[in-house]
Amino acid sequence: FPIYGSVIGPNAITTELTFTTDADQPFSHDVNATTPPLAFTAMGLPGGLILNPTDGVISGTPSRSGIFEATVTAIYANGQNPFEKHTFTVTAVPPQITIRSLTTTSSTSTAIEYEIIAPGGEDPDVFLVTDVADKGKDLYGWARRIEEGAKGLGVYTTTFGDLTPGMTYYLRLMARNTAGEVWTGATSSVRIQPLL
After folding, report:
1. The model's pTM
2. What distance in Å separates the CA atoms of residue 126 and residue 23, rounded to the nearest whole number?
3. Which of 31, 49, 93, 123 has the fewest CB atoms nearer than 10 Å to its CB?
């Protein structure tokens, strides 16, 4: 009769290698190998993701959209260190924005402090609009617009000038990237320009 023995092959990474996830959303994946390694390493992970070298968990919140190729390696005492290319496709999502405050800087100007809470994977183009009537989400229907350009995560301040004292103004903020556009609030912020 033949005698059968165990067959031991080389160590290898045995988990999924391709991922699709949204920007600004939590992500987690356990990297596994045929036998537990001493440690794991990774190079080229998307920004916002890290690899725990002890347990092989890739986790975090990817901050930029795009396709990223990372090399993950399992380290063994015998010097046999298998590696695999992991491909991450991070898709853009609409940004998240808010108006933080409105401050009168003179009888004819108001400073608007706003925040990009989450860019959505790519820096959105930001527009502030004001008018004496609420024009809703019609960007070009508003009498006055300030185009701030592409803005990343953070707090910004801009000023509307040449306002008429004693006049009521409606104000909104819009941000858009390739995934879509968002406007602050369900309705416009109303601001009465003081006479000072």
Report:
1. 0.82
2. 19
3. 123
